[in-house]
Amino acid sequence: ILNHMLELYEGGREECRPNTTSFTAVIDAWAKSGDKNAYEHASKLFQQMQSMGKAAEPNSVTHNSLINALAVSSVPDKATKALDILLEMTNMANKGNRDVAPTIITYSAVVKACARA
Fold this sequence. Notes:
- By secondary structure, the chain is mainly α.
- The chain contains six helices and no strands.
- The protein starts with a helix and ends with a helix.
- The model has no long low-confidence stretch (mean pLDDT 97).
């Protein structure tokens, strides 16, 4: 569905432009899928999301879903990557972007990724 929305948007249908909620829902679905490649899929969506500008800007929920996808994946250095994402969120929040400030859910997701490393 997200791909279809992107196709419609790229074809000129502005009202079909995916937003933060659209992308986050799909990233979260990958996190909940249990797929060992969940992080790779979620990460690609996260990067695509970042390229879309303000309308699809990742927030703390998006980052939490990305970390959860990492936790269920087979990525060998998932603990380091989870901590890197946490650090990035903290840095962005300290620079004024409160929408990405880590929450208790963020810290729980990082612990989960570290425990499964």
